[in-house]
Each structure stands twice: as structure tokens, then as C-alpha cells.
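WARN retry 2 of 3 for item q-0093 after timeout on previous attempt; input resubmitted unchanged.
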Amino acid sequence: MKISFWAIAACFLLAVLIVISIPIPLSAQGSRSESTDFSRSEIGYMEKPYRSYAEYALDLILRRTQNHGLGVSIDPQEYIVGPGDEFTIYFVSGDIPNIVCRIGIGGKLFIKSVGSLEVSGITLQDAVEEIRTAVRKNFTNTDFDIQLTDFRLVQINVIGEVMQPGIYYAPAVWRVSEVLDLTGGLTPEASNRKIELRGASGEFPVDLLRFSATGDKKANPFINKGRTIAVPSHTETDDYVTISGLVNRPRIVEVSGGDHLADYIAYARGTSGDLQDMTISVSSRNESEVRRMDGADPKVLDFVPSPGDNIVLAWKEGKQKFGTVTILGEVTHPGKYSIASGQFNLNDLLSQCGGFTADGCSEMIQIYRLIPDYVSGASIENLNEGSLPVGSSNFSGSRRDGFAYNKVSFNPRGSMDLSQFMLTDGDSLFIPRATGMVSVTGAVASPGLIHFRKGKNVDFYLKEAGGLGFDADEHRMVVYNPHTGGRISADEAGELFDSEILFVPRKETGTKP
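OK item q-0093 returned
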């Protein structure tokens, strides 16, 4: 029996396809004689970060136009231009076309009708001035503007204490912290104050604690200045300063040279009151004596602590009188905070704790306050000279020493002037997480969860649920809020808020939620 050439070719192709479709274990990438005991979860852990980054990098390389939408603000004195950066010269005169030019691999910028300029390796401000001077010689009778319209990609090697060390690609306008996010973040052993960005022109210190606490951009430079990010371990040094007492976030801070007392207070999220009403005690591990300073001294903030110092802020005699409050849930820095003055309001507290997170349901603030037993729940709103928010109040928790915790909830449909809500000693606040959903139940065509849309009213959610059922009693519809525990008729509700429940009863049963 004769077998044709095409039949043999088809069989060979089929065999190749079968072979390449067989997954090769990770160990086979090295020596095939080595056995492997990787679990599926371990393989997934190793592959997933790389795969997501690879897709991101490929998208950057193939779709460079997306760099226009990075939404960053560039300091022209800080950004260093280089090969791949694109400039556009916009002419005011309509008969002169705009000129688009990009720095070549050799570092020169060729401008049509002008010539070549050596601009690589200098600041954006200097580059723009050199381009302006050269263009002005050839275009003397018109005004023009020069803009950096596209950014180059930077190849950067990340080494040390990060979750996924390796070579990464990122826009040149990114800062060190953004590239570290690509690696999966720092390890628990990493130093966040002694990171280095290394390049041909030297080493640039990176202090992420200072950047996050003070917003100092010099502590988090652009990656275009270097080629390697080195993250050391904090265990390599024992240089620490402890700051505690009347600060909003007591902590142990790694020393990074040159920090003043004002810096350490910033790292601790500020003082819990007026510094003038405090004394500062500094004890050293090398000396038995304790140094005491007056917070009212204008020079006290310039004091430079030494490694090993323990800094404690305390009230002066007769100044401790305000107490503490606790805030939990969806805020940037949950925890216990000192009431800074006799007029400490909710806005002051939110400012100290960093405000709501992106997932915080800011309309549903819950307040728990110790109220004397003889005060009824109905009069709880009068305890703070009318400053408590309009909302539901109810007993919550056990009685203790003649007091009981009562819960007060903000009414999302009432006025919410947070600066008018004064806090008192012992208050606890909780900010719930937004669900992104509204529930429609009862006599509707398709009851269930519907994506929350801010500002939308009852009619919108009824339509999303398929409309009223044939037996719906639309005159008795109610809106229930699971956070406040309150309910209101649908006619009075107006817009619905995150997590609320719209209940449509049936005519024949008169069912209630």
C-alpha cells in the first residue's frame, strides 16, 4: 500500500502538535534528571505575578500612545530626558505645521528644518531651553510652545528584599515606589528608608517612609536617574529611634541620617494636641540621664535625635484633660487618637487618621457613645448641644458603672456637617465598607442585588429589577438601611444609598420586611 507524501506530512504535523501541547514541569526547564515536588499552588504563585507583569509590559511597548494618559505632573528641574522621549513644537501660526521629534538612541534630537541637538542626560527644563534657542534661530516671526508629549520606557533591575526581584520595564516618569509595586512589594525584612537608586551619575537615596509621611518627592525619585533599585534588609542595622506618647501613631523608626524631631513627629502622624502643651523626654541607650525639653520652645523641632533614642511626648502638668477616641473600619489609619482640644470635631479626627479609604461608605458613619443610664435614647441627640447627626439611636452593649454604649448613625438623607459633630472622651466610630450593591426584594419581576449607582432613585432600581410585579403594592414600598437600622417610605426616600434594601410588599399578604 502506498502512502502519499501529504499523508506522511499530516501525521508528522499532528505528532508535533501533540508534543508541544504537553505541559513541561518547571523542573524540566533545568535538568530533566531532577525530580520536582512543586504543588499547583506553588506553581501558580510563581507564574501569576510574572504573567500579569508581562502582559502589562507588552501593552506599554506595543501601545506607547497610552503614555499620554498617565496623568502625572513632572517637575522640569527633576526629570532627566533620554533616548525615546518625544517632544512636540506647537506653532501659533496656522500655516506652520507642528514638529514632532524624538531623542534617538545616540542621545541626539533631530528637529526638521533646525538640525540635531545633544539633549540626552540633562533636565527637562534645560532641554526645553536648548530646543527653544535652536528653533528661534529658524522661526523668528512666530511664537511657539514646546511640550514633552511622550515618555520613554526604562529598563530597571530590582535587587534585594522585594517579593519578585528581576528586570522590569516602566515609563520614565514613574517613581521608585511604583516600580517596587510591580515586584509585589517589599519583604517583611526590607528597609524602607535606605533604598538606593543606582545609575551612571551616582547613587540616589530613596526614603519611602519620608515620602509617605511628608510627600517629599526627592525621597522617591524618578527611575530615569538610574538603572538599578537596591533594597537592603533592615536587619543589617540596629539604628532606630522610638517615638511614643502623645502622637497619633507611636512607632519605631529606622534612622536615615539628618532627621529632626519635626520629622519623627511627622512619621508618627503628628501630635495628639498642641505641642506647646507638652514636654518631650529623650532617653538614650548610652546614657542614664533623661533629657527634657519644652514643647513651647521654638527650637525644639530642630533637635536631632541619635540612634537608640527613645522619645516620649507627654502633657505638661494640668494640661491633660481631653481624653481619647477610637475610629475603626474603612479609614487610612484606624486606631485610638487623643482628643487634641476641647473643640475636637469629626473633621479633625478624619484629618489625623488620613480620611476614608476608597472603599469607605462615608454616608454611613456609626458612632458609639457612653451615655448615663438615666438619659433615654430619644434624648441622646441633645447631649452634645444639638451637634449630633440626625439618625437612628439605640441601646447597644452592656451597662457599666451607670453608663451604657448607645449607637448613633448618620442619616444619609440629612445634613452632614462633620465639623459640627464634636467628639467626647470614650467615643468609638466605625466606617463600614461599601458593598457597591442595592437590594430590591418582594413583588418585582427580578428580585436580587443591583449595582449601586450614586444619585439614582427608587424608579431606577425598580426598572433594573424588571419593574413591579402584577401583585405589587407600590403605595407601601419601604427603604431599609442595614447600617442605621432605619426605614423610610419609598416616596420619601428620594435617592438610594449603598447597601440599602428596597422592599415591595404584595397586595394580598401585606408582607412586611
